[in-house]
Specification:
The protein is α/β, with parallel strands linked by helices. It has 21 helices and 16 strands. It has 3 domains: about 240 residues, P-loop containing nucleotide triphosphate hydrolases (Rossmann fold), CATH 3.40.50; about 130 residues, no CATH class; about 90 residues, no CATH class.
């Protein structure tokens, strides 16, 4: 910063060139695309769908609206666009709207340049401060977005017609930057009309004054599909002014959802106790969400957010941690019996559609069972567990549940040697009692759901006994 020009004359001498914000973003996007780099990190599953559309929009210099259900990374992508701005940008010192030193538009900046010429002081603003955001609400006003007369400045002696009496809104204050409006349909229609000039003529008008501020702004918005809520809609002229409308989506496959969960979830830990999440349990959590998105018993218009998967993974780990604390174990691995904890983290995130009262819990339980069965069939072909079924048909009985220590459950390998191969496949060579116990419980539950073993649920489902069907 110390080496950057501090006056208008020094800025000119440095050779710095002023470019519109969309051209600046295009230039930096071209550099990333040419280098084979993603536009921004942390957004998974859009590489072949959303990102090409976004790259096209930025290269074309379009204002963009992201259309999609909740939890589809719309806001994350919008906020990440600041990474495509230059790290530092010069502006006229003291300007509220980041006036371009070569092309000042506010009265303050014009007067300062007229008075000081090449000695006009210059400030440098970081790209993180060139971003503005507003969550659209029905009470949002034109004054919030565009601006209003400041009565304090009038009381100080200025005339109402004086441009210096204006208090700029959020849009002018992000001049030469990016402005985002989340949930834009929630803006009242008369407020949406106020954005038409910003998108097409690139200027704002305040209180009918003959004040024209030619703004340089990339406008980005997000919205849920129009049939998602009845709270509002985007007026046709405003929608027409967005250059590109990009539809987002939920993860298209289980592994993508697993990668997102790993990135976003905060695994619980206490002291020296570590929670190890096996891949097959991650797949169960992700498959649960995937099945919910395809279920006719879940309201699909409200969506099944990826936040559901993240929360469920965190709660699953937390329940395993609580079980480990009570058992005095230092290594904890979530088991099938811990999946009952997902009810609390799921209920508030999806809307169950049922004709009968009190069926919500049963529907969620069935979705969990379907997820376990789906993953079980994918990771363990029946020929690898056939001998396990035979052992139980010969009289073996297994007790599982929160109160069964990992070491006791892992000891089942001694009495049922046929379990060793499928357990090793699930644990990947981890021979700790916690990992072995979790794998054994998963195998037993999978065989029960495949109708190969009987299961007697005890204590409200917190414990169970598995036996042969003979």
């Amino acid at each position: 910063m110390a080496n950057l020009p501090s006056t208008l004359g020094a800025l000119k001498a440095s050779g710095w060139q002023s470019v519109p914000v969309k051209e600046e973003i295009r230039r930096n996007a071209v550099a990333k695309i040419s280098a084979g780099e993603p536009l921004f990190a942390g957004v998974i599953g859009y590489e072949q769908t959303v990102m090409p559309q976004l790259e096209n929009a930025l290269l074309a210099g379009h204002d963009v609206i992201f259309l999609g259900e909740r939890g589809q990374a719309k806001t994350r992508m919008i906020r990440s666009l600041t990474g495509l701005l230059d790290e530092w940008m010069p502006m006229i010192a003291g300007s509220e709207i980041h006036d371009d030193p070569y092309h000042p538009v506010s009265r303050h900046a014009r007067d300062l340049v007229a008075e000081h010429g090449d000695a006009t002081p210059i400030e440098w603003i970081h790209r993180d401060h060139r971003y503005g955001e507003k969550l659209a609400t029905p009470d949002t006003s034109i004054a919030d977005l565009i601006g209003e007369v400041d009565p304090i400045k009038v009381a100080e002696g200025r005339y109402l017609s004086d441009e210096l009496t204006l208090h700029y809104g959020l849009v002018p204050r992000t001049n030469r930057g990016i402005f985002a409006i989340n949930e834009i349909p929630d803006l009242s229609e008369r407020i949406q009309v106020g954005l038409l000039n910003v998108l097409e003529e690139r200027d704002v008008q305040i209180r009918g004054y003959t004040v024209r501020l030619p703004l340089d702004v990339l406008l980005v918005a997000s919205a849920n599909p129009e049939d998602y809520t009845n709270r509002g809609r985007i007026i046709t002229p405003l929608k027409d002014r967005f250059g590109s409308q990009i539809r987002t989506h939920y993860p298209l496959d289980t592994e993508t959802e697993v990668h997102i969960m790993r990135q976003e979830a905060r695994p619980p830990s206490v002291g020296d106790i570590a929670v190890r999440m096996p891949h097959y349990m991650e797949q169960v959590v992700a498959t649960f969400s995937q099945l919910a998105r395809a279920s006719n018993q879940v309201n699909q218009r409200s969506g099944v957010s990826v936040r559901l998967s993240v929360s469920n993974l965190e709660v699953l780990g937390a329940n395993a941690l609580r079980r480990g604390l009570r058992a005095g174990e230092t290594t904890v691995v979530p088991r099938v019996s811990d999946l009952g904890s997902l009810a609390a983290s799921t209920s508030g995130k999806i809307e169950i559609e049922s004709l009968e009262e009190g069926r919500d819990g049963v529907i969620l339980e069935n979705l969990v069972k379907a997820a376990v069965l789906t993953v079980f069939k994918e990771v363990l072909p029946f020929d690898q567990v056939r001998e396990v079924v035979n052992s139980f048909e010969e009289g073996t009985i297994a007790h599982t549940g929160e109160d069964v220590p990992s070491a006791d459950l892992a000891a089942l390998l001694e009495s049922v040697p046929a379990l060793r191969a499928p357990v090793a496949r699930l644990t990947g060579g981890d021979e700790s009692p916690a990992a072995v116990a979790a794998a054994i419980e998963f195998v037993l539950e999978g065989l029960h759901l495949s109708k190969r073993l009987n299961k007697d649920a005890l204590s409200g489902g917190a414990a169970a006994t598995y036996r042969g069907r003979g």
